[in-house]
Specification:
This protein is α+β, with helices and mostly antiparallel strands. It is 39% helix and 23% strand. It has a 4-stranded antiparallel sheet, covered by helices on one side. A 3-stranded antiparallel sheet has the order 2-1-4.
């Protein structure tokens, strides 16, 4: 006499036979997940664009480097060099016009306080500073300064 198989035992037999294929993910599924993660990462990157604070910090660091370059060129050539803020940028008086950049990376950058610095040619210069501001950050300023011996450095202005 033949015994009829129950529906439960039939399902177990099918699941046991195809168990290897049912485990894991296909390559297509993995590629879809990786693509979704890449799109999410790109979206977050675009959402966290540089604000005014990062731009102001980048301008201050760049100015400190340019002032040190002007100071070094002044000492090397033995000619006095003076940095001055002008509308829309700045100038290095005493250096050739093409020696160093004269424009801000962000045109809205503002110079507050003294708008002129003496960079040399003496190895020791007077203590000097310049304050930078950005219109999108009212009340926030960064100071680019030197004590006359050390290089120009960026400091947060309280």
């Amino acid at each position: 006499m033949k015994r009829a198989s129950s529906p439960v035992s039939g399902r177990r037999a099918r699941a046991a036979g195809s168990g290897a294929a049912a485990r894991g993910f296909t390559l297509l599924e993995l590629l879809v997940v990786v693509a979704i993660m890449a799109l999410a990462t790109a979206g977050v990157g675009l959402a966290l664009r540089d604000g005014g604070q990062a731009q102001l910090e980048r301008e201050a660091e760049r100015l400190a480097a340019l002032l040190e370059a002007g100071r070094a060129q002044s000492r090397a050539s033995g000619t006095p060099v003076r940095w001055r803020a002008v509308p829309g940028g700045f100038r290095f008086d005493g250096l050739p016009a093409t020696a160093l950049p004269t424009q801000w990376l962000v045109p809205e950058t503002q110079v507050l306080g003294p708008a002129a610095l003496v960079l040399g040619p003496e190895p020791l210069i007077a203590s000097q500073q310049v304050l930078l501001s950005h219109p999108s950050l009212p009340g926030r300023m960064l100071r680019v300064s030197t004590d006359g011996l050390r290089p120009f450095a960026v400091e947060a202005q309280p």
